[in-house]
Amino acid sequence: MKIAVVGGGAWGTALADLLARKGEQVTLWAREPEVVETVNRRHVNEMFLPKASLQPALRAEGDLVKSVTGAEVVVSVAPSHAVRAVMQQAAAALKSSKPLVVSASKGLDPDRLERPSGVLGEVLPKGVPIAVLSGPSFALEVFQQQPTAVVAAAVDHAIAQRVQHVFSTSYFRVYSHTDVVGVELGGALKNVIALAAGILEGLGLGFNTRAALITRGLAEITRLGVTLGAQPMTFAGLAGMGDLILTATGALSRNRTLGVALGQGQTLEQALAGKAAVVEGVNTTRTAIALGERHGVELPIAREVANILFQSKPARQAIADLMERELKAE
């Protein structure tokens, strides 16, 4: 099977490597010339997944149209803010073949407040089948073939099942779902709560506080998700609770790591300085607040994360303001 993975970050690279190890013919498109060069010459993505020895059959390509032309499956893994521009450029090459397109980006379009699959539905040719892939999955651990379980979702369950068969291996188990809204929102909004979890850790706070944050964070994610049309139970599964626990507690989480730096007193600019990889939670925090305001959904944790990120509010004051809100039933 000819597969194009669009996005040469850590997650795109790990998925491309997984598919290449299955014996598929995989091309990884990367914007950065140095990624293309190191993948092709030394079989490693030194910029985003260093010291990971990639499948030699995996090829990288700097020409987007060339990489997707003739592909039976296209995996869209660009950062959420770049999905529209990148896939718009690829769209013309997909007009005749109409491949299966799988969105694996975990974020929201910051300009139009849309989920990545919605963006793909706008920019891709009519009739192209679209699915999403999400769940608790650090790229490095997937590369290391550690047992991982994720979710593939599509409105048409048969399309989700196709994605299952494309990606499933002995160490990468894919469940199918039809709640595209819930699966995508879980994958995006957990990054906001992971930032908050890192902030708590940076402040030196303990397990009681973390448990309260994760639980109330999940309630907040679910509240917004259900308002936007998601199924409540989706957030109790891999794309909701599973991804939230991983990203809020795991040492490999970029969002949690950024939060730790903020909790230790760094500004957002200082904490992001010199980092090549995108920290999706920063843009998603703004987008979540805007969605909450648009739909009349209260998001107290996300709002305080935004105050810390963008208004330089002291983290301890943000926590105090959350704790001293009006008492209410759970």
Please describe what this structure looks like.
This protein has 330 residues and is an alpha/beta fold. It is 51% helix and 12% strand. It has an 8-stranded mixed beta sheet with strand order 3-2-1-4-5-6-7-8, sandwiched between helices. Helix 4 (83-91) links the parallel strand 4 (73-76) and strand 5. Helix 8 packs parallel to helix 10 (238-249) and helix 8 (180-202) crosses helix 13. The model has no long low-confidence stretch (mean pLDDT 97).
Main attributes?
alpha/beta, 15 helices, 8-stranded mixed beta sheet, 330 residues
Topology:
Blueprint: E1 2-6, H1 10-21, E2 25-29, H2 33-42, E3 59-61, H3 64-68, E4 73-76, H4 83-91, E5 100-103, H5 116-123, E6 130-134, H6 139-143, E7 148-153, H7 157-167, E8 172-177, H8 180-202, H9 207-227, H10 238-249, H11 254-263, H12 268-272, H13 280-295, H14 300-311, H15 315-323
Parallel strand pairs: 1-2, 1-4, 2-3, 4-5, 5-6, 7-8
Antiparallel strand pairs: 6-7
Which percent range describes the beta-strand content?
5-15%
Order of helical and strand elements? EHEHEHEHEHEHEHEHHHHHHHH
What percent of the residues sit in helical stretches (DSSP H or I)? 40-55%
In the sheet with the most strands, the strands line up as 3-2-1-4-5-6-7-8
Classification by helices and strands: alpha/beta
Low-pLDDT stretches are none
pLDDT average, as an integer?
A: 97
- Tally of separate helices: 15
Biggest beta-sheet profile? 8 strands, mixed
Give the termini separation: 50 Å
- Gyration radius, in Å: 19 Å
Describe the global form: globular
- The beta-strand count equals 8
